[in-house]
Design a protein that fits this description.
- The chain starts with 5 loop residues before the first helix and ends in an 11-residue tail after the last strand.
- It is mainly β and 681 residues long.
- The protein has five domains: 1-59 and 317-392, no CATH class; 96-226, Methylamine Dehydrogenase, Chain H; 237-307, Beta Barrel (Thrombin, subunit H); 412-531, no CATH class; 544-670, no CATH class.
- It is built from six helices and 45 strands.
- Helix 3 (438-446) packs antiparallel against helix 4 (491-505).
- The longest helix has 23 residues, at 6-28.
- The strands form 13 sheets. The chain has a four-stranded antiparallel beta sheet with strand order 1-2-3-4. Strands 5-6-7-8 form a four-stranded antiparallel beta sheet, with no helix packed on it.
């Protein structure tokens, strides 16, 4: 008999391992759906990737992602730290002498930090060009990185010790200070600037929980006893604390804003601020009550409450528009149920995953969430491909922002119309065939109302008729209204119609007065008894700031006057500070974006922002990410142009010129009037 060579046994063994791995993998990705198609983890086709990454029995200590899920870092009980990309490909893997308890990546994705059970603190850049380590005397069990990796905040201490330490390092390995505490429960690092940033933390002191705040210089600013820190708002100006059965919201300065009692023996596990506003989501467990998920508004009033699965993971999506829950403990042993709700708590979609999900991470990019299974499996879910999005209409697929136009085709005329929303009147630029009478055109175009995709509302009934007569010498505009238009029954609609006229006509400097007539007679009562003082005055914006506003599925730039925001006339830096501050409330804008300086010199305004601006420009960014960046730049550009005598705008990053990746708008631009804001889709 022919003898079988030993290497054949090895080949057969390898084949067996591969087949077994594929079988296991296939089993784990089986999913059942209540509606729509299953969300299955994407399969890898390249050799070894699948087995290197996912078929491991190791337990994960910590998982961290950057804001766009371009990189995922985690440590496991095999004393290894692994770094993946969004496609779950292994970028590198490193071994450590002791267990890596904490693994963190900065929001920008460029810096990594690891804290180990043996007291090691490791810091490196993504490209491994800079690297340092500190050997500390106690386990490093909490680690936080600032958005741009400038600061490393840690909590260290042995479990048996009463005294633990909160410590701050910079990225150059310098330890700035150490604050003795009890065992730390939560730490939060806010901001990059030494004179502005804050740290919020909570720790156990004997039998009492203490929440405190400190500056980046190490000064303790305030302490609150008998309260545990649960959440910090997106704008970092509000904190949510819990004490037994009481929910409390404080300002960043330590002032109590409101407090509410929770059901008796209610065990709070999750508290979340909506990234888009100050609404608060509270989840916990108490089998004796019918509800375990509560939504409070910014003043502490309950908006809604409902019952969801016990032991669930809960989070907002990055834009605050939806709520995600995930649970396996009360569902099926080897499956997890993921449910999407809207802001009102109404279920949108539900599906199953073939794994026990124990961690839920939400990226700053609203498309992605990361689900981590108990066996070390990591799945990246694209929410735009979930059942909740299968039935989206073409209307919802329209671009969520339309950039400012500065040029038109020779056969075009652009007119600006003001339509209504729940946030006030919004300017929209509509492109029409070239006309020599744009004043007549704007009135005609007000009647059809906004485009269907706009998420804006019409004020003028579509059956109305308006004739236009303009005296160019006197600046008097006469609007002859059809009779039914002057007797609108709703006072709110009547006022809205008048403001629509005033705002829209205000774009024409030659118009001084607006007269309304019916049957060529002045209108004295408009709508339901509104006394009309003739004439109406066109509304001219004075010292406008341009603020991004979220309306439905869209974003618009909306003017706000400096006086309404307690800003001095022509205080350009103060206006730009306000724009940056309000932009930070948007889910995709870094919370520590800061205006360092704004100066005007000749025909040029220079706007100097900190390095957090770069996080708005991720490499290979999607169309949505490119539009996000364009909107923030447009807000800064228009505010600068309207409040100076300059036409050239340059934006610097930490005082230096910087070029965004390909596909994004440039950080310098020349704006010559006229420009056209919020062009229709």
């Amino acid at each position: 008999m022919k003898r079988i060579q030993p290497h054949y046994f090895l080949i057969a063994l390898l084949v067996l391992i591969v087949v077994a791995g594929v079988a296991i993998y296939s089993f784990r990705t089986l999913s059942l759906l209540k509606q729509g198609e299953p969300i299955e983890p994407p399969t890898d086709t390249e050799e070894n990737d699948l087995f290197e990454l996912w078929f491991t029995s190791a337990d994960l200590f910590d998982v961290s992602i950057d804001r766009n899920v371009t990189r995922i870092i985690f440590g496991n009980d095999q004393k290894k730290v692994s770094l993946l990309d969004r496609d779950r490909k292994l970028l590198w893997e490193k071994s450590f002498p002791t267990y890596p308890l904490q693994t963190k990546i900065s929001a920008c994705g460029n810096y990594l930090a690891v804290g180990t059970e043996g007291g090691g603190l490791f810091f490196m850049s993504f490209d491994s060009q800079s690297w340092w380590q500190q050997e500390l005397s106690d386990p490093v069990y909490l680690v936080e990185l600032s958005a741009n990796g400038k600061w490393v905040l840690i909590g260290r201490g042995a479990p048996e010790q009463e005294t633990h330490y909160l410590e701050l390092f910079n990225q150059d390995e310098i330890k700035h200070w150490s604050i003795p505490t009890g065992p730390l429960q939560k730490i939060y690092l806010s901001g990059e600037q030494l004179n502005r940033g804050k740290i919020f933390y909570s720790y156990q002191q004997d039998d009492t929980m203490v929440t405190a705040a400190a500056s980046l210089t190490g000064e303790i600013l305030w302490e609150i006893e008998d309260a545990a820190l649960m959440a910090v708002s997106r704008t970092e100006d509000r904190l949510a604390l819990v004490n037994e059965n009481e929910l409390m919201v404080y300002s960043a300065q330590g002032a109590l804003l409101w407090r509410r009692a929770l059901p008796a023996e209610f065990k709070t596990s999750t508290v979340l601020f909506n990234p888009q506003n100050n609404n608060l989501l509270v989840y916990g467990s108490d089998n004796r009550v019918d509800e375990n998920l509560y939504c409070f508004n910014a003043t502490g009033k309950i908006i809604w409450q409902k019952k969801i699965a016990e032991g669930a993971l809960v989070s907002f999506t990055a834009d605050g528009g939806q709520i995600i829950t995930c649970s396996w403990r009360y569902y099926k042993e080897d499956f997890s149920q993921v449910v999407l709700y809207d802001e009102s708590g109404t279920e949108l979609s539900c599906w199953e995953l073939g794994m026990r999900v124990e961690r839920l991470l939400v990226a700053a990019n609203r498309r992605y969430i990361v689900l981590v299974g108990e066996d070390g499996y990591i799945d990246v879910v694209d929410l735009e491909k979930t059942p909740a999005h299968e039935k989206e209409t073409k209307e919802a697929a329209a671009p969520f922002y339309s950039s400012v136009l500065t040029r038109l085709q020779p056969d075009q005329t652009a007119i600006t119309l003001f339509f209504f929303s729940d946030t006030g009147f919004v300017p929209v630029s509509r492109l029409i065939s070239r006309t020599k009478t744009p004043l007549h055109a704007v009135i005609e175009e007000l009647i059809p109302g906004p485009s269907r995709e706009s998420c804006l509302l019409r004020m003028i009934p579509k059956e109305a008729a308006i004739e236009v007569l303009f005296n160019s010498e006197s600046g008097q505009l006469y609007l002859e209204l059809s009779p039914e238009l002057a007797v609108i029954s709703s006072s709110a609609q009547a006022k809205g119609i008048l403001n629509s006229f005033r705002y829209t006509v205000g774009c024409f400097p030659e118009v001084r007065e607006i007269y309304l007539t019916v049957n060529q007679k002045p209108v004295e009562l408009f709508g339901d008894g509104m006394v009309l003082e003739q004439p109406l005055k066109p509304y001219r914006w004075r010292d406008p700031l341009f603020i991004p506003v979220h309306i439905g599925e869209r974003y618009y730039l909306v003017p706000r006057e400096a006086r309404d925001m307690q800003i001095e006339q022509r205080d350009l830096e103060g206006m730009l500070q306000a724009v940056v501050r309000l932009c930070r409330t948007l889910y995709f804008v870094p919370g520590d974006l800061t205006l360092l300086e704004a100066t005007g010199n000749g025909d040029k305004v220079t706007i100097n922002l900190n390095r957090s601006l770069c996080m708005l420009f991720p490499e290979n960014g999607s169309t949505e990410e490119q539009l996000q960046a364009a909107m923030i730049l447009d807000a800064l550009y228009l505010t600068a142009v309207e409040n100076s005598d300059c036409h050239r705008i340059e934006i610097l990053v930490d005082g230096e010129s910087w070029s965004p990746p390909q596909g994004y708008p440039l950080l310098s631009r020349t704006f010559l009037k006229p420009y056209y804001i919020n062009p229709e889709f």
